[in-house]
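For reference, the entry.
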Amino acid sequence: MADLLALLSSILVGASDFTGGLFSRRISVYAVVGAAAAVAALIFLTIGIVSGNPTISMLDAEAGVAAGVTLLIGTVLYFTALTKGRMGVVGGIVTLLVLIPIAFSVIHGETLSTKTIIGIVVTLTGAIALGIPEMRGGTAVSAIVMAVVAAVMFGMSQVALDRGATQDMYSVLFVSEVVQVVIIGCIAIFARSKGGITRRDLLPLAGIGAADAIAVSLFATATQTGDLAVVSVLASLDPIVIALVAYFVLKEKLMRVQVLAFITVIIGSIMVGRNGGG
């Protein structure tokens, strides 16, 4: 059951990211992220209340703010990159985020296992091979750069969440989403714009936030009942979901070398995620 929950988590994240990138082609990416974050915040608050007595400590608040800011920057860049480049390529490159927590651990004195070092090399090699064919100038290059920076921001948000979610994970997640809503709300007020959102967009945008929040909850449940190594692998397959949906819906195709590079990145990120520090 845990494996199924982890796999479903990947599917939900991949589908929501694809939808977010698709909507960002038509309306403001800030509007997409803000609407999704508002729904996610409500879901995390609800889960926190139902699951126990939610409390927000100073550590939770600090971690939530840090995670919210980095997650906001990362998501805006990520969705923008998905509008400019091939989604399969962008999604694959963003898996570099797994390297940031590892780098953080090394900075704080942890040593890496041989398998983790190999995984890092494999991941970086695959990401470079995935991006090189896109370096034709113009929007393709900017999409790659945005994807790399987004990966760094996502990795930093994971570090912040990990440091803060020692007692009440949903409180930290709730704060991180609220921070995004507040920042985007201020931007909207300053710009005097709703970002092009219409009533027909509200339900799909709410679905993006709901899918992400549910995916986090499913993954958390899976880690409690299943083998962490297996669950982590199954929950990290969302780039494959993005690539497949982009292939069937948008008819996006990857070169053979990019398909191999994509597989290499996934394998490398799985090796890093499974082994961690040693």
